[in-house]
Amino acid sequence: MYDDVAIVETLVGETTHRDDEAAAYAKAIERLWNEAVTGEDARRLIVRAAQDLKN
Fold it and tell me: CA-CA distance, 18 to 23, in Å (whole number)?
């Protein structure tokens, strides 16, 4: 996201979205950030995932 432009990279190139389409991407990014874990919680999640892969 750059200001009000969303640039989406895919396996075959990239697409640029503006206006309502860019707003939809901004909303999706906001939802992802709201669900993201950070700091110590993120570290514990990563360690647990690595341990699960070993088993």
Answer: 8
- Report helix, strand or coil for 8: strand
* pLDDT of the residue at 40: 97
Query: The whole model's pTM is what?
Result: 0.67
DSSP codes, 26-38: HHHHHHHHHH---
Q: For residue 23, give every residue at least 6 positions away whose Cβ sits within 8 Å of its Cβ, in sequence order, or none.
A: 4
Distance (Å, whole) CA 1 – CA 28: 11
Looking at residue 33, its pLDDT comes to 95
Q: Are 45 and 37 a contacting pair, CB within 8 Å? A: yes
